[in-house]
Amino acid sequence: MLIDLHTHTRPLSHDSDLSPDQLVEAAKAAGLDAVCLTEHDFVWDPEEVRQLARRHDFTVLHGIEVNTDDGHFIAFGLDQYLYGMHRTAELARLVDEAGGALVAAHPYRRQLPFELRDEGDWTEPLERAVANPAYRYVCAIETLNGRGSERENAFSQALGERLGLPAVAASDAHQRSDVGRCATAFQRDIADVPDLVRELNAGRFQPRLLASRRADLR
Question: Does the pLDDT value for residue 21 go beyond 50?
Fold first, then answer.
């Protein structure tokens, strides 16, 4: 089952050009089986998610991308954003209490210096990233981000390997052309968020590259 774990839609994510309906239509056209709505520091109303899913006869799940002091993390199983989530330990506590799952999103950001994104030795930044205490709380790391360059994603993959964490892939879609570039392949069917949390925590998934990035985004 192919699921895009990381997407953004307007107006809840101000930097997205995608409406929720456009996202789902693009996901269906790309051959995906489900999408997760993970807006920036905002959780969708579950009833609105159900209405969107019914309207398109397509599996739509909800999560949240949380901006923390240690980077961005995708949380599943939470019903709202609460003050304090910007501290990773507090976010992890809330996710654990909710019986949820936490995934590290595009870890190259803030950790791979701009001047090293095209060339240069990233040994020192990688060592600093490995020492980031926030990764003790996650069940997986996003090693393939649809908006990241090949080198940025290679950094994320190297980090995941050093940490011994399972890898996921997601489009991080903000526009229609982002959808369908990559997704996570799950071994078992997933119908709702509890199913997703169970499979993420069990590690029954693999990242999948589905389409190449456009040259002008490299």
Answer: yes
